[in-house]
Amino acid sequence: MSLPERVVIGMDPHKRSATIEVMAGDETILGTGRFGTDRAGYSAMVTYAKQWPDRVWAIEGCQGIGRHIATRLLADGEQVTDVPPKLSARARVFATGQGRKTDATDAHSVALVGTRMAGLRPLVNDEQLAVLRILVDRRRSLGEDHTRMVSQLHQLLLELIPGGAKKSLSAAQAKALLARSGPGTRPARPGAG
């Protein structure tokens, strides 16, 4: 009795749905489907895929829109590889002769890339990396918030003080400027100065 052949499950992920195509090594299409990404849809998709015990999921954009579903599959012990969107776009053009995008053609092109390309990046369930990613995202968000607030402060000071304030302004300096331009002072007039 021969062992079952490894299949690639190409996926075109979206926020609320995922379209898949199951492809054998000889590029025969063994199955297709569209599933929701809620609990019931995800469970149905994984149950459907279990009929192929030797499988690897090839997901387009695991660092972007595919991240949420790739993470769930990894947590469930599935093998997942990341297919860069540029590669699947090229495969779609070569396979169909056109660049038209549908969920089914995207899933097919991802499956083709997963079947044909060696060296695709496998994803690993690395909890430390996930925590670091969350911290980096938070740091970036705090930096963006700081920049936005400083810009708002400078805009406010420009409205209250003719000529505004210097670019590098400490919190204490901003507080002192705001105190001096309190309720009894008039804001700068448009066109004045």
Automatic annotation (TrEMBL):
Residues 9-162 form the Transposase IS110-like N-terminal domain. Pfam families: DEDD_Tnp_IS110. InterPro entries: Transp_IS110-like_N, Transpos_IS110. Signal peptide: none annotated. This is Transposase. It comes from Paractinoplanes globisporus.
